[in-house]
Amino acid sequence: MIELKGVAVDYFVQRHGFRSIKSYITSFGSKRLLERKRILHDIDLSIGRGECFGIIGRNGSGKSTLLRLLAGILEPTEGTADIRGRVAPMLALGVGLEPELSGWENVHLCRLLMGHDASSQPRVKAYVRSFSGLSDEELAMQVKRYSTGMMARLGFAIATATDPEVLLIDEVLAVGDVAFQQKCYERIGELKRNGCTIIFVTHFLSEIQRICDRAACMELGTIVKVGSTHEVGLYYHGILGISA
Amino acid sequence: MTRSALPIASTRLTKANWPVVRAVAWRNVRLRYKSSLLGFVWTLLNPLLFLLIFLLIFSEAFPQVPNYPVFALSGLIFWSFFATTSAHIMGALVENSAVLRSLAVPPMVFPLGQLLAGLFNLCMSFIPFALILHLFGREPHITDLLVIPVVLCYAAFVMGISVALAALNVYFRDIGILWNALLPAFFYVTPIAYPADLIPDRLRWIVELNPLYHFIAAFRTVLVEGMMPRSEAWLVLLGLAVLASLLGSWLYRMLRPGFIANY
Fold first, then answer.
1. What is the ipTM of this complex?
2. Are the beta carbons of A164 and A86 closer than 8 angstroms?
3. What is the nearest CA distance from B203 to chain A, expressed in angstroms?
4. What pLDDT score was predicted for residue B1?
């Protein structure tokens, strides 16, 4: 269950260039070196358990920031965010993979980085082996020798190894071939049937309509429309100026 | 397995993060000599190689130092911990920005992982050092164990300074460039390759102001002379460790809210 109430997120952005440092120093610190920028504002969102929720919007509309907030990477500057359940963030595939280490070593390291303990190791190993389709020999190989596709398969396998309660996906399925995407969608469907809440961010309406129950459209740092995937799709096309 | 209504901030370091810190530290240890033929042996060889260079250049220069190799090696071990660990910790946040931007890992995991990797390598370099001490006929002594509190104070000092640098480096990459330029200067200013009493009395205050001097002096008192540092020396070490830690944690806390937008 996810409940966001009046959430706003500010970023502190450096004002670029030497000039800003100079004026900072000559003002003896009275001028601010970092600028506060509001990235998200007035976000109210409630997503039920087991729901598959799509988020669509243009570049820079705040989709990824919202996902970071849900993943616990960011704290709201204002408002409250209540997220219950184990969150598996997939904001980028293969993040945390260390090229010099072997596949198995990376499984261990990445699982820990994702906040899992090492106790479920044997089950995770079996799952990684079957989902990624990588042979034992390949999994013992340094990841730097992997192809992009192999890396994506390993990354997805690591992220979805134990059934998460909330799965966050940020346009990561664009990589990989059709067969890989197919496999990912199957796994997402399976997680959904097991009661996992899924939040899916993308530019592509068709993907949202394919797997989501409900959706939201973001624009300029806030949610401008929540509804069925059809309604939100029409709205999004309206923003883009495309007639459906 | 439902997590109770937590505030969303799971990015503060807690005890539960220890396995991650350990895994990251181990990764760092592995990566340092990865893909090299001798691998781990370099940890042992590196100080010896440096020692050789030192002996060729400086051994005639400081005839007043008894056992110059032991003197030089103690300084080198000490120095290389500072130089490599501070540089690694300083870059730890920026280098792991991809992970920090997409996973809810406390950022402090990465500087800590570098500190532990540095400490591990320091412990390893004590092996060739002990060997050389033995070759020069020095018997092991119970006061040798005092190296542990000295190293702990030193580690806290290095960590404090480097975390402050790491936090600033997120915003201004100039810090990293500047630090790498300054490191050699610190090396020459600190009595590492030469004895401290070589410095004329009127410049003595510069040495006293240099925090590294106090650490290396205590280090040598314990390991080279086999004596116990005086209580004033302990107080200075402890004070420096506490001051640096306060500085590091203060800057880190202050700058952390802006990390995510500036990695």
1. 0.87
2. yes
3. 31
4. 30
